[in-house]
Amino acid sequence: MPRVRLPLATDRLVLRSFRPGDEADVFAYRSVAEVVRFIPGGPRTEEEVADLVAERASGGRVDADRPALTLAVELDGRVVGDVLIHLDGLNGADGRQVEIGWVFAPDVAGNGYATEAAGALLRASFEDLGVHRVWARVEPRNEASVRLCERLGMRREGLFEQASWFKGEWTDLAYYGIRADEWRAAQER
């Protein structure tokens, strides 16, 4: 059974399972309409955030029965975002590909935390889970996420115009990806 060894530590962040007590921090950003504009679901209520925190305490296990792993991103004791690894979200959970995603509090934007956290997801995906490819699905108007994918070394693999009915409108979807061999070559540079 694949497992991401938790916590994941970066220079400034700790990526870990959610735990009781995280609710107020998560509500502070998951309840903001602009923050959740480009991710499924609307602003969360306190009750919905409590359920989210309770459901996503996973210990790092990722498999066909539990294909999604959502981790709290902690900065100096505060949860400032969360990140996602989802096994092979396009083709079934065969364990060879993962989708990654992220959402962060607006007051920490522009400090490189999302890049740092998503970079840790790439490392865990390739080293701990041994996947072949990591990809992200981005609404092209979400310029911050497009730039993040590019900073991670992901390339745009395709653009599907008006491919998704999302939050009351047809939206485009851009797909970004990076293979294990590409990621390893970049790490050696």
Detailed description of the structure:
The longest helix has 16 residues. The model has no long low-confidence stretch (mean pLDDT 92). This protein starts with 7 loop residues before the first strand and ends with a helix. Strand 5, helix 3 and strand 6 form a beta-alpha-beta unit. Helix 1 crosses helix 2. It has an eight-stranded mixed β-sheet, with helices on both faces. It is built from five helices and eight strands. With 189 residues, it is of the alpha+beta class. The protein has a domain of 127 residues: Aminopeptidase.
Defining traits:
eight-stranded mixed β-sheet; single chain; 189 residues; alpha+beta; Aminopeptidase
CATH architecture of the domain at 8-134: 3-Layer(aba) Sandwich
**Total E-strand runs:** 8
Principal-axes geometry comes out as: globular
Outline the low-pLDDT stretches. none
How confident is the prediction overall: mean pLDDT?
A: 92
Oligomer: single chain
| Biggest sheet overview | 8 strands, mixed
The portion of residues forming beta strands comes to: 25-35%
End-to-end separation in angstroms reads 32 Å
Q: How many DSSP H or I helices?
A: 5
* Residue share in helix: 25-40%
Element-by-element helix/strand order = EEHHEEEHEHEEH
CATH superfamily of the domain at 8-134: Gcn5-related N-acetyltransferase (GNAT)
